[in-house]
Amino acid sequence: MDNLLDTFEGKQRSVIAAYVLWFFLGRFGAHRFYLGYKRSALIMLALSVAGLIATTIAAWGSAKVSGADFNSALQTVLLAPNTLLGWIGDLILGGMTIWWLLDGAYTYVMVRRRNNQGLIPASLIEPSKP
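That's the TM2 domain-containing protein sequence above. Prediction below.
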């Protein structure tokens, strides 16, 4: 039984560390990486980066070509002020903000679930048949 507790202690995750990661890097999924939720962390990271890139390109394009004539429809859509790309970036970042806020309430639950995984080995629950 001591071995079981020793191995379990090594898997513990700190609630405080999870919330620090959530607060500072939560929009990029850092707290989810820390807790072992890699799939959802990668989704958060990809969406946040995509939203930042889209918003940055739209803002740069607006500043760069503000008041200029556009040569093509693609330039108009991507680089004109208040572009579709800017709206998409804002929508993605707004959605990530909502997800980040919801994760603030859910991080404690994720830590407890992560810390309770493997507490009782399957061999104790269902003994092997001879």
